[in-house]
Amino acid sequence: MHTNSRIILILALCTFVISAKANDTLLYTLQQCRELALSQSNSSKSQQETLLAAKYNRQAALAAMFPRITANASYTWNSRDAHLIANQMEFPFGTVTATEDGTPSFHWKTESTNQTIKDIQTEAGQAIANGYQAIYDKLTVDLTHVLVAHVGITQPIYVGGRLVQAYKIAKASENIAIIKSEAEHDDIIYNVDEAYWRVVSVSKKKELAEQYYALLCQLEKDVQAALEGGLVTQSDLLQVTTKRGDAEVKKLQAENGLTLSQMALAQICGLPLGTLFMLDESGLSETFLPMDSINTELAVNNRNELQIMQEAEKIAKSNAMLMAAGLQPNIVASAGYIYTNPNVDNGVSSNWDGKGFFSAGVVVNVPIAHADDILRYKAAKHAANAVVLRTEETRDLLTLQTTQANQKLTEAQQKIALARLTQNNAAEVLRMAQESFAAGLITASELMQAQTVWLAAAADLVDAEVEAKTTETQLRKYLGKLE
Fold it and tell me: Do 133 and 260 belong to one domain?
């Protein structure tokens, strides 16, 4: 059988084996891998929770501007009552004593020896004691069970802009959470694309290694036959055998590399590490992004990193205004309804038919000498200036980054064109070398050199195509055009 025919047969068998193996595995497209990774990403779920927390914080800051209604109630049990006057009172003419059991008494400072007058004093003293006892009882408050209930409303009228600035900070924080969620989405897509095309690269290099190994196996058989015919030396056969052994090792390395890269992609996509799958390689040699119509300034303005810095700048400025609010007057209005038992609706009574009362007022607080608030305000202003400077620095860095990615993709496309030309030339040289070897015009060593050049050129083309795809994804990420 002619050498070329045998090579074609071997390559056809390799293709059949690969196709048969593909029938037992799943075929994933790049879009399917992206969707799997996005649905399985714990970090993406965590970012969604953070986004919800920021949303509710913003709503809470808005709600703080509206009236706040509160209701309070308390109950107290006391072992003793309250007496508003003393149980004993001294007068210039005597001392009166009231008791809790209702048996008052009065003692005159001087008592007459005349029995008639003494009887009058006794009756008068008892009358005074009874009157004082009555007053004592009336001014005794039953505090055994004390209930206080209050319903009130508080409305800030002016608090130096604290509430407005707090809302702005919460709103900017929510925007940052949204931007970070979008950035997380883009990072996942980029990581998937990078792992996806790495698998494609290793898979293609594995195919090349198998083809190269098949070529050397066939060449070893041909040289063995030529050795038996006395056309070549044993040294020629040893060179081919050694080369074939090296190719077998490289083929094994390529197989192991493919397994590891597939496991890495499966981990990103949330699939079991041992999942068998194949990837759609149809878009490897295609790039769709026009490189001559990039608006770098617009692209940088849309970058997540810059938008986060701009929101942080808003937070820093609002924080400075928040510190300045400590130097402004505060006006708060309040109103409420209070009910107590014992009540003071008509004296002090423990009857439940007492009425509560309404109250309303305005509190004004004017800071006069607050050195700490002044210093905090100055510190917050300098912190805001620092954020502004970092924002401008970030803008410059992102402009440089986007420009470099654009240039890198242009270079990658040029590499592809050159690699394709080199690979076509190497394939033609290999074809001519095979024909020359079959005709006995060149040695096995020269044929192996042509095979090595062909393998290197084919591998370079794969590298150039994969580099272009990953660079395209990176530039799309920078431009905010990831789907």
Answer: no
Positive/negative CA dihedral, 264, 266, 269, 270: negative
3-state secondary structure of 121: helix
pLDDT in tens, 165-206: 999 999 999 999 999 888 888 889 999 999 999 999 999 999
Domain of residue 109 covers 85-138
User: d(Cα 479, Cα 402) in Å, to the nearest integer?
Assistant: 8
Q: What is the pLDDT of residues 92-127, one digit of tens each?
A: 888 999 888 888 988 888 877 777 888 888 888 889
Residue 349 falls inside a structural domain: no
C-alpha–C-alpha distance, residues 476 and 473, integer Å: 5
Give the domain CATH number at 196: 1.20.1600.10
Q: Which residue has the tokens 């810095």?
A: 309
Residue 297 placed within a domain = yes
Assigned domain for 53 exists:
no
Strands 26-28 and 277-279: parallel
| All residues at 6 or more sequence positions from 435 whose CB lies less than 8 Å from its CB, including other chains | 4
CA distance 375 to 149: 43
pLDDT in tens, 432-469: 999 898 888 888 888 899 999 999 999 999 999 999 98
What DSSP character marks residue 343? B
What residues are paired with 145 via a beta bridge? Answer: 77
Rounded CA-CA distance 79/310 in Å is: 64
